[in-house]
């Protein structure tokens, strides 16, 4: 079939294809397109119709959902988001992922860990993916403010949703979806008890946002600030691997 790569030996055909549009975006895009058609074709108000047409195209582009090639190496932690790495810092995991919530669900231990923050602009794909495969132990939604997602304090003040995934070997990785200035809704695709494959879609954040990943203790980031990462493909870290990495700013 055209557009499908059958294997990694060069067999099959490949060509560019339009990425799929997530259902969350289809309805918004169609509403904008319908209003555009109304003002252009019925009312004749191009000053409103054409901006709505552009808005419709922008909405469809924002909610694009391309396929990804997920690395299958067991010990890697993948990026959950497309975007730019803006912060790598040592910090405590979120309080909501450390406390006993009374359900008996697993939690993260206290102690300093490495946090990798990924900022998504409105031009990035906003479908988020799980950095590891395993069982969803917690999904905690917290209402909050809407300050710039690029600021460090957004991790504690903005609307956010924490997700904790436990691998089959007991290693747990927490990550947080954070709404930004224009983001107004975090849409989850998973719930506690769900079993996820590595790189599986777990949710989206509308219109600009950030995702923080809390690496397990004893694990350092394999990316640098300023680096562009791709959800479900870029390796953020290897479990248990430590050490400084260096690069050249270009």
TrEMBL record:
Q: Where in the cell is it found?
A: Cell membrane
Question: Whom does it interact with, and what assembly results?
Answer: Heterodimer of a large membrane-associated beta subunit and a small pyruvoyl-containing alpha subunit.
Q: Which residues are annotated with the PTM Pyruvic acid (Ser)?
A: 209
Q: What is this protein called?
A: Phosphatidylserine decarboxylase proenzyme
Taxonomic source organism: Erythrobacter neustonensis
Task: Give the domain of life.
Answer: Bacteria
Q: What is the lineage of its organism?
A: Bacteria, Pseudomonadati, Pseudomonadota, Alphaproteobacteria, Sphingomonadales
EC number, as in UniProt: 4.1.1.65
One GO cellular component term: plasma membrane
């Amino acid at each position: 079939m055209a557009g499908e790569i059958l294997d990694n030996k060069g067999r099959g055909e490949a060509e560019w294809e339009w990425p799929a549009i997530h259902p969350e975006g289809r309805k918004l895009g169609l509403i904008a397109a319908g209003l555009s058609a109304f003002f252009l074709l019925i009312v004749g108000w191009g000053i409103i119709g054409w901006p709505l047409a552009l808005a419709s195209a922008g909405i469809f582009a924002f909610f694009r959902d391309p396929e990804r090639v997920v690395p299958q190496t067991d010990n890697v932690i993948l990026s959950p988001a497309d975007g730019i790495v803006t912060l790598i810092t040592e910090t405590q995991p979120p309080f909501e992922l450390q406390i006993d919530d009374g359900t008996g669900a697993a939690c993260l231990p206290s102690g300093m860990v490495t946090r990798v923050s990924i900022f998504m602009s409105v031009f990035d794909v906003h479908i988020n993916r799980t950095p590891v495969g395993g069982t969803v132990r917690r999904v905690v939604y917290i209402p909050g403010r809407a300050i710039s997602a690029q600021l460090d304090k957004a991790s504690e003040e903005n609307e956010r949703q924490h997700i904790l995934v436990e691998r089959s070997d007991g290693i747990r990785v927490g990550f947080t979806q954070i709404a930004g200035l224009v983001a107004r809704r975090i849409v989850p695709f998973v719930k506690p008890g769900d079993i996820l494959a590595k790189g599986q879609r777990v949710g989206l954040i509308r219109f600009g946002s950030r995702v923080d990943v809390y690496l397990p203790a004893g694990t350092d980031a394999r990316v640098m600030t300023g680096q562009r990462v791709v959800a479900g493909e870029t390796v953020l870290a290897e479990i248990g691997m430590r050490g400084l990495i260096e690069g050249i700013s270009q």
